[in-house]
Amino acid sequence: MAPHKQMEKKDERVCIEEVDTAARLRSHLPGIIRDLVESSRDPALFAHVDAERIPRIERAIEVIERARRLLYPGYFDGAVLDEELVNHVIGTETTRLYETLSEEIALSIRHDCQRYNLVCTKCREQGQEQAVVFLRVLPEMRKVLATDVQAAYDGDPAAKTLDEIVISYPGVLAVTIHRIAHQLWRQEVPLLPRMMSEYAHSITGIDTHPGAEIGPSFFIDHGTGVVIGETTEIGTRVRIYQGVTLGALSLPKEEVERLRYAKRHPTIEDDVTIYAGATILGGETVIGRGSVIGGNVWITRSIPPGTKVFLAPPKLIYKNAQTENEGGGSR
User: Fold this and answer.
1) pTM of full prediction above 0.90
2) What is the distance between the alpha carbons of residues 26 and 22, in angstroms, rounded to a whole number?
3) CA distance 263 to 229
4) Which of 69, 82, 134, 297 is 20 to 30 Å from the Cα of 253, by its Cα?
């Protein structure tokens, strides 16, 4: 028999075996599907069946991006923005943001109404009203963000221009998203602010709860690993570095519910600098105005204004190959 005929028979046999194997494995799917459907009916497990549509993260990101284009006109439009276009571009962007935001707010409110059997709150009307409230705040938000950008420039000698900071600094991006999310949080919009803050966390490594109150001229340098808890209060002209935690003290399980709406995170007064890796915990902890908190310190009590807190320098031991070979010690 010709070699190619033998190959055809071999291939045919392999194909039949593959079909048989695929059919055998697919036969498991009905049972798996049955188990998954059954588990979706278990109240002890998480499922969102027969409930209102949840706001989508893609739409929350769209709101952020549209708001950013209004907060920093010309930076993220993908085109030249001149005097002839500015009215058209801002007008179009504002209208589209209004439409997207009002729909997502309505979905957030409607979800809570149905999920928790609340009295009807006219979610569509509320969505439109709250979107208007948000849009009215944007000019003032622009002014505050301008102080954040300037603080980044003033505090970082590596920054060459303000444009570089707006376009590329993760700390400024995280603070921008925080100010957007915080405004919606203040308007008591459910779901959407947390979705925004977790998106910022995922792309910058900076975890800022939308409930945190942050004053103007705020600068996060580098930023990776920063955590700012829900009830944190931060004054004006505060600068923090990577790895800083403004958090809550660990609580026994039975205390969690009692303190869910209480102040659990520290207050940072004006003109404070907090260096990398510092951890400041507790709702009663106040870092006084003008204080400097050194790297890697752990603070759970209040610090008076104008205080500098540093760890004692560790003892460093230097060894090189020559002293090791000679049995020499440290110098």
Assistant:
1) no
2) 6
3) 10
4) 297
